[in-house]
Amino acid sequence: MARRSKIHVGIEIGTSKTCLVVGEVKPDSAIKILGIGETKSAGVRKGEIFDYAQTRACLRDALAKAEDAADVEIGSVYLAVTGAHIQGVNHRGTYRLPDGEPVVGPEHVEEARTIAREVQIPADHVYIHPIIRNYWLDGLEHSTSPVGLFGKTVEADFHVVHGIGTRIQNSIKLVREMPLEVDDIVFSPIATAQMALNRDQRERGALVIDIGGGTTDYALYIGGVITASGCIPVGGDHVTNDIHLVTNLPFSKAEQLKVTEGDASGDPARSVGTARLHDDRGFAEVEVSRAVLNETIRQRLEETLRLVLRQLPDGAVEAIGAGVFLTGGTSLMRGFDELAYQVFGRDIYRPESPEISGIQASFRDPRYATAIGLIRYALIVEAERVSPPGFFGRIARMFWPLGN
Amino acid sequence: MISHSRASRQIIDPASVKVIGIGGAGGNLLERIALDGMDAAGLLLLHADARVLASCVTPEKIHLGKSLLKGLGAGGDPELGEKAALEVEADLRRAIKGQQVIFVCVGLGGGTGSGAAPVAARIAREEGAFVVVFATMPFAFEGKRRREQAEVAIRELSALSDALITFDNNRMGELVLAKQGAHDAFAATDRIVCESIRSIIRMVTRQGLIHLGLDEMMRALGDGRSHCLFGCGTAAGKDRSSAVLRQALASPLLDQGALLKKADTVLVHLCGGEDLTLLEIELLMQSLQKFVPLDANLLFGAAVDPAMGSSLTLTLISSLPEGSIEVASRESSESATAFEPAPIVSREPEIAPTFEPEPAPAPMPVQPASPMEDDLFVARHVEPEPLMEPARLESLDTAPEEYHHEQEQEVDVAPKPAAPARPWKKSADSQAGEQQKVKLSVKASGAQSELSLDSVPRGRFEGENPNVFEGEDLDLPPFLRKKK
Predict the structure, then answer these.
(1) Can you give the pLDDT at residue B343?
(2) Pairing of strands A44-45, A48-49
(3) pLDDT for res B177
(4) Which residue of B has its CA nearest to A232?
């Protein structure tokens, strides 16, 4: 099906940075990044906005930069949301076919889907995504809709992501004030996974961990379908704060020390001597024992990874075949892959963005994984929307929204 | 009545106050009151189930319908409950005789509570006591039948009691997280009702600097059928005056103080230790002014009780005319099945047509004030359940002051989903500020065990709600946390 190339924009309002990515989706589904607008975030803590005025200013700045860089006028965007209040649950809806109807019809499947989507969520929560995982027909797994097959019981397995409604509304409101239209909201790790994982890796089982400034988001894919997702309110900010609290250095120095000297591997050979920061004249301004610095960082990150590990369903780690994919700014920490290997015992990757033309080098940065993932998400959602109804529509729906 | 120089101040002897719990919910409330240690007030349990009676800790018990129900419950039938209560009318009359104030706590909807509560209220009135009924309405999920039974009982009680304060369990459910069990929701209701009883008893039994008595309370509760607004809070440490106000306003019956905006009479009672300063009172009243209309009739009372130690309690009582709450309450539209979105108060001392052997004893009996005997309610302790590890208890013992402080923080975050909802516990314990009380309050608090760390610096996350995830405060460096 021929399509014109289309421009999508992804916004991530992160704890450390706000970034807009403008991407052009070519007819062959390759993504070309036209421009990125990035600015340091203010007023965001642990992935949630606490100072709207500041965050609005940052977003406006990032928007201006992105429009300049891409030379397009941005009208609508895909927005990534995160925060500890957002969680994903799996739910299965079962529908028993009425007597005398041996063949599964579209309405039966629809009924099963409706039941599956009706997860009990707290009163103040709203659904963000209901993601179809797979169908079951009389206990047999079907990755596509079983319409037209003989059967008695249709089941639809959904992964439902939900979060506190008002907080999500406020994020949307902020973007609308730009003014920008919000095409869709996406839970960050799900967007990240679009970028970080290809279909093969999803099939074999993969865990994406996006450690950003304020939150650690994760999404687990097993057998090609999303199995778990969630957010832990810990990120790079916490590492800096820990260094600040342990060593009593000011935040700026703690941050600098973390970026230039920190190591999370726990390798004793890298924890010898002292780490120094030099001032303009070359004098050592700050001195911290590497053993303390590295241990502070390692304990924080190890705890965070173990929290992620604990959130995963039983036996999930054993099912991860492709490996653990780390993204987000904090994953740039030295020795982090070694630490992650100690925790998960699986292959560790820091993914690079595939299929991007343009000034690629800068976009291979894991810090942009979520925003670029949004473009890919947009591509998938768009593919579903423009599909003609009928058979093709059902095929597309099977891919919807995440190409599983 | 005897004339005494203090008679006009209407101090009520704590020993002539009795709390009667009826049925299952009433029994739970009494247990909580007994566990938290109630000032000298007597506790009496009326229950039809012999097993419950045997296991309850209250000193006085009356077995309802011993021959009618044969030691079993009323099985959800109010008629049986009523008959069972009538069977023991003589015992009940004896137990109530001579009491000045009777608090009847009852969970409506079931058999024993809905049936026996009107009987108990009538007998108490006939014995000349001032009757205050605290009734909880059933949860919506308990079904329509129970709701109807509760409504019938409420109508009877509103005619029989001097003051009726109802707590709708549906609203109480806001106190707990959505994912917490029904058990927690019931426990939260018990806590708030217990706290209400305690604060009213405190108000009428303490002689105050500026005294408030039952007459002012009646005034604040309004005269017809009206919605009761009630909030109370306890806090210690610095900034306690604003903390108590926050707590009191956080009561689900006040809707963050929004409902006070329409009240025309508000009763404010403040009770503190000997270090209560005028400045604190001033500050508190100033901030309260923002929540009440300018022309509201503020009935202000203050009392000093050395047993309060360094803590401060605030009680707010007011009422809104029936029907005015629908617009004010954001919950009302959601709880379509709810009978009333908020509690109702009614006070109709004149209407008691069926049993009026003597004139309604509305005027308060007065007695010379007896000095507060604090050791009386200290003695009433029950051994705390050792749900906390001993190490934690020790750490709390050494720092009771800090503990109180943390409790306040807890209360702030209570409506948010991240925090354990146990706000109604503390005032009782902090009341005397003794070690034993602190221990008591710690029982069953589970998730709060981390809070003792709250006093360490938090750097960038200073002043935020604790970022509790699986029982650990993630804002603190693991490097420091794990070393302990």
Answers:
(1) 44
(2) antiparallel
(3) 59
(4) B469
pLDDT tens figures, A27-73:
777 888 888 898 998 888 888 888 889 999 999 999 999 999 888 88
Q: Residue B27: which of B88, B117, B91, B99 has the closest Cα?
A: B117
Specify the pairing of strand A31-40 against strand B226-236.
Answer: unpaired
Instruction: Please give the mean pLDDT across all residues of chain A.
Output: 84
Q: Which residues from A are below 8 Å from B418, CB to CB? A: 84-85
Closest partner residue to A245 (CB to CB) among B417, B457, B470 is B457
A237 contacts B464? CB cut-off 8 A: no
Quote the tokens at residue A170: 């406020």
Residues of B in contact with A89 (CB under 8 A): none
Query: Is B477 within 8 Å of A242 when comparing Cβ atoms?
Result: yes
Q: Which residue of A48, A167, A242 is the best one to mutate when testing the B interface, meaning the one whose CB has the most B CBs within 10 A?
A: A242
A303 CB within 8 Å of a chain B CB: yes
- For B467-478, the pLDDT digits (tens) are 777 777 788 888
Q: Are B414 and B233 in contact (CB under 8 A)?
A: no
Residues 6-45 on A with a CB inside 8 Å of B are: 45
The shortest CB-CB distance from A245 to any of B177, B464, B480 is to B480
Range of the domain at B96: 13-205+322-358
Q: Does one domain contain both B332 and B462?
A: no
Which residues in chain B come in under a pLDDT of 50?
A: 5-9, 224, 325-454
A·B CB contacts under 8 A: 69
- Model-wide pTM > 0.90: no
Q: Are residues B439 and B334 part of one domain?
A: no
* Fold adopted by A199-350: Nucleotidyltransferase; domain 5 (3.30.420)
The count of structural domains within chain B is 2
Of residues B178, B459, B479, nearest to A123 (C-beta)? B178
Does residue B404 belong to any structural domain of this protein? yes
| Residues B479 and B350 reside in one and the same domain | no
pLDDT given at position B66: 77
The CA-to-CA distance between both ends of chain B, in Å, stands at: 64
CB A218 within 8 A of CB A317: no
Indicate the residue among B338, B358, B378 that finishes a domain: B358
Alpha-carbon distance A207 to A337, whole Å?
14
Q: In what order do the strands lie in the sheet with B130-137?
A: B60-63, B42-47, B17-22, B101-107, B130-137, B163-168
- By C-alpha distance, which of B206, B311, B314, B209 is closest to B267? B314
| CATH code for the domain of B354 | 3.40.50.1440
Low-confidence residues of chain A, pLDDT below 70? 1-3, 351-364, 385-404
Regarding an ipTM greater than 0.85, the answer is no
CB-based contact, B458 to chain A, within 8 Å? yes
